Amino acid sequence: MKPETGGNDQLRGVKRNSDPVLRVTGLRAYFNMRYFGIAREVRAVDDISFIVRRNEIYGLAGESSCGKTTLIKTIAGAIRPPLEVISGSVEFDFGKRRVSIYEAAPEEIEDIRWEHLSYIVQGSMNVLNPLRRVRNAFLDFAFRHIGKSMPEFQRIVEDHLKRLHLEPSVLEAYPHELSGGMRQRVTIALATVCRPEFIIADEPTTALDVVVQKSVLAMIREVQQEIGSSMIFVTHDMAVHANMADRLGIMYAGRLVEEGRTADVFASPMHPYTAHLISSLPRIGDLSIKQALEGAPPNLSDPPSGCRFHPRCPLAMDICRRENPTLTTLAPEHRVACFAASPKVKPSGETTGSRLEHAEAMQ
Amino acid sequence: MTSSISPLLEVDHVTKTYAMGGLLARNAFPAVDDVSFTLEADQPEIFAIIGESGSGKTSLSRMILATVAPTNGSIRFRGKDLSTLHGRRARLDFMREVQPIFQNPFEAFNPLKRVDRYLFTTARRFTKARKRIDVEAVADDALRKVGLSLAEVKSRFPHELSGGQLQRTAVARALIPGPSLIVADEPVSMVDASLRMSIVNLFKTLRDDLKVSIIYITHDLATAYYISDRIIIMQKGKVVEGGNARAVLDNPQHPYSILLKESVLSPVVANQSKAGAASTAGAEPPFHEDVDRRDRVSEAPR
After folding, report:
1. Do B201 and A211 touch (CB under 8 A)?
2. Is the N or C terminus of chain A more exposed, i.e. has fewer CB atoms within 10 Å?
């Protein structure tokens, strides 16, 4: 496995750890739909900017339908109608290769996928073709990218499976012959066999029970450390984030509302939504009453004015109903979009404000 | 079987065996193996059944709902053996008392039918309401018990409601016949973290205010600890540990229960040093152990 990735490793060594691998700037992606002649615009990703550094796990949290999956789809360049990218850019820096997803030719993106950028999809225990042996899945996905002869490819795959505590015999199995946890490990093996620099994991453990979940998470972390890749890890389970993420971004209704180092976010959440997510976690040994958040997540085709969280927010003020708060750096590495958190948070005059803020955060 | 006051539910040495394999190599696979427990009629409680996937939780719940017959042993509801349940009338009487809630509300409701239709059908079948206005009143009443109202749900399709609202509607539907037992199979595993507590708190209210007993099937130890009164922990069809929920989870005895408790991810950031590598390097050995233990414990051929 070593010789073919030696070059990359060297490059990684030269780069500083704080260099961003992924830079998302002012990204807006809307679903444009037309039903019965009425056009609807669903703002699933609305002006999001963040960076992911080398060798870092960036956790992305938020409830269903807050746009998490749409965000990572736009980052991976998997954009199909009705999803449309309105503005913004997504830039990857893979050391020897820089790619801006929306400017690159389709062939170039094809080339990057799997080799540099891989994706552990949602519900990945069900993505394996039930009629084909696991070996064929590896052939389809990885053979072309690894670019070795068949026996050597075989050896690479088997070595990689061993690293994930899987017997090489799983290659001969059909997906239904494997348990859920093993299938999940196979899909992780598939996504990491080419030693990609960047991995996107979308709810990789949601369908698994606690014992398997823990081992799968450990495995993801182990592989990520070993091949030194960066990762966006998406889940709504805050307990998973506490154990996985180096930095954490909280999404609400298509916007990033808080971002910071995981320990900081858990210790001192500044956005009321984050505070609620953390305080409502039940724990063994804790019998205090946990309150649920009232109300429902907003409809993204008709989001509330101003701060999108204000209808459910216990701290809502007058300004929250009118103005949209800018994601502002309030502490080192800690950005928050809430007027109640600090008077430093200014309303964004839509795009321009957040662009400025973005520049500040990126220094 | 003819005790003066019969318990609400008696599960008496119940076994369910499924046959696996083809014509030549047939294996009997015990999905539920000699499980017994009793729910008393006079004290409503939340009884949690905990176990990983494949531990027989769902098979057990199906037997309690009388949709699957046990291979051995018997289940008695208010002293009446469920295997003697014959005919439509007996089935309806049973359903009036025992109602299910399913795992994924988006799958439990037909996406092409309006949600209120489920409430109205249940109301027509199990209550005296026949006129539209009465049926709507029954549905509204049930929805108010779960913190919703008919106005919010009426003529909506499942995709128009959030997961939490939909699951609460499912609970409201289950409440219409006025059941004394609700069997909830993983009711919160598909619901978002922020809405999960609304369902879990609702179960508490049902127990305290409506005196409904709830069998809460889950693999989430944290919510089980939070709401349940008694629990049993199942592994490969067998009950390995049971008793008062707090006592068992605070101090589990069986190795499998200990493994389960250890596997619960703590929501406390483990004093993570900024270099994530350092913290995980320290934590790796136990993870490996878990993998190995788990492989020994439950990935045995079935």
Report:
1. no
2. C
